[in-house]
Amino acid sequence: MAFVAKGRFFAATVSALLVTAGAAQAAAGCGKSSAGFSEWIQQYEQQAQAQGIGNRAIGALSNVNYATKTINADRNQKSFKYSLDKFMQVRGGQTIISRGKSQKAKNAALFASIERRYGVPAGPLIAIWGMETGFGSFMGNQHTLSAVATLAYDCRRPEYFRDQLNAALQLIDNGTLAPDAKGAMHGEIGQTQFLPVNVLKYGADGDGNGRIDMVRSKADALASTANFLRGHGWQAGAGYQPGQPNFGAIQGWNAASVYQQAIAIIGAQIDGE
């Protein structure tokens, strides 16, 4: 989600999405190939400008390209079809547990601060951090705006990704997201891979410098992840294994059951449960 905002939280900016939502609706239609994408972007650009999107973001739209690799990845998400054991093996579960314990010890003060603030312990945050980007070692190399614009045009889930495109434009407008930013295949941003809408809703300033940088600041990325889980019903002190109160918050992170279970298993091992 590479994903990323100014102020304590970015939630205040969400209201601005109501203004830009009209741009996505106005750029009607969708496509199943690159044919028509350039024309759609031009239409979208005109409507976004009419809806008040700033010049910085409008200029960024002029540089998007149809992201064929994103479409291929969207059609071929094989790992979520694995058994839990196979998924853990493919994702390097034992390595994440081992390295995660080291990360927990190395960043003890940070994780203690996050738990005090959000009620989320280190384990599940580290599990997400490790599985998403190998603790920030690889956050993706796909042009973020091209990825979300392509998926907003694609007929499979246009409404969902038009919201993401609107959010990405907001982030570019306020300087949080660089116009040429790169991330994961679906437009995810930063060390814990936030989609643009979630940056707006849950982005948090974890290092106290007055801005949010999901790419360069692990404190921001981890605090934002804890804020996301709290926003999805996390209860301080409650368990997070399947059937326990906080497993529902983990389910909010990813729709794949094997991914949810892996977070719970890896997190528990890191937390020593």
The proportion of residues forming helix, as a percent range, comes to: 55-70%
CA radius of gyration? 18 Å
Low-confidence stretches: 1-26
> In terms of structural class, how would the helical and strand content be classed?
mainly alpha
CATH class of the largest domain: Mainly Alpha
CATH topology of the largest domain, which one? Lysozyme
Mean pLDDT, nearest integer?
89
Number of helices: 14
What is the general shape? globular
In total, the number of domains comes to: 2
H/E element order = HHHHHHHHEHHEHHHH
What separation lies between the terminal Cα atoms? 27 Å
Strand order of the largest sheet: 1-2
Description of the molecule:
This protein is mainly α and 273 residues long. Strands 1-2 form a two-stranded antiparallel ribbon. It is 57% helix and 1% strand. The protein is globular and about 55 Å long. The chain has helices at residues 14-26, 37-50, 55-61, 68-75, 84-90, 93-106, 108-118, 122-133, 144-153, 158-173, 196-202, 218-231, 247-253, 257-271; strands at residues 142-143, 182-183. The protein has two domains: 12-74 and 145-186, no CATH class; 79-139 and 202-271, Lysozyme (Orthogonal Bundle), CATH 1.10.530.10.
What is the element layout, followed by pairings?
Blueprint lengths: L13 H13 L10 H14 L4 H7 L6 H8 L8 H7 L2 H14 L1 H11 L3 H12 L8 E2 H10 L4 H16 L8 E2 L12 H7 L15 H14 L15 H7 L3 H15 L2
Antiparallel strand pairs: 1-2
Helix pairs in contact: 1-2, 1-10, 3-10, 6-8, 6-14, 7-12, 8-14, 9-10, 10-11, 11-12, 12-13, 13-14
